[in-house]
Amino acid sequence: MTFSSFISTTRHIINEIFEPQDFSLSTWMTFGAILLLLSQAYLPSNVSNALPLLYLAYRVIKMVFDSLRLHTGSYTTLKRGRWSAALPEPENPEEVNSGMDGVVMFVLGARINQSVAIFHRCKLSPGAFQMDDVFQKMWQEAEKNRIKWGYLGRTATLVDHSDSERPPTIWLSYWKGLKGLQEFSASAAHRLGQNNYHANKYPYMGIMHETFYSPKGCWETIYGDFPAWGFGNAQTVVEEGSDGGVKLAGTLQPNITGSTMFRRMGREKLGSMKT
Q1: Which residue from 86, 101, 109, 192 has the least number of CB within 10 angstroms?
Q2: Helix %, strand %, coil % for the chain, to 5?
């Protein structure tokens, strides 16, 4: 292993174990106080005093520059204008299963119910690292079975900070139908996590899920000056290659000027109020 690959692997492991949302604000402030004390103990006083001032100056300068280029520089994922989301038709409908009579949103959540004050949902909590590995394998299996299960995509890891004690981790995922979602629940990765949970191998872990099914003509989306997110960031298979690969297409499309909520649902005769 080369030095650069070692550094890359080490950085990946650290990022997998420690995430910014794993710790509360008070914990990060504690870390900062510890670092300040260490710098004062082992560095010259002028250097240790300069470090927080330099970082503060950097944050102020960055804030000023970001405010001057609000939509052009600092927000690289921003989609300017008004957009809506719809599933594109497959290039070869006979080869790709395009059957869809609605949209399914599957909400999956996990919460670490542990009393160690420094951890909010840190993967160092007992069983958390193993459970995180199970979640990652579940999503990887869903990616590999997009055609079979009608998997469309998911959000990044979300954290519900309304829970001040232990903010839960949440994922929103999107599917073409309930049948595919049910097949996903019977997959090897999901069954492994489920069996281990019922066997009490994750004693500090709480699990929840919610399933919402919206029939065709009963859902719509609108995004204005907003990044591709949620269903707007979903992808569907439009072509299946002979080598087993697939061609994906996104769901975002420019919103038609003057469109209404009902028109985006495909109910053009209902309502005329612009939204």
Answers
A1: 101
A2: 40, 20, 40
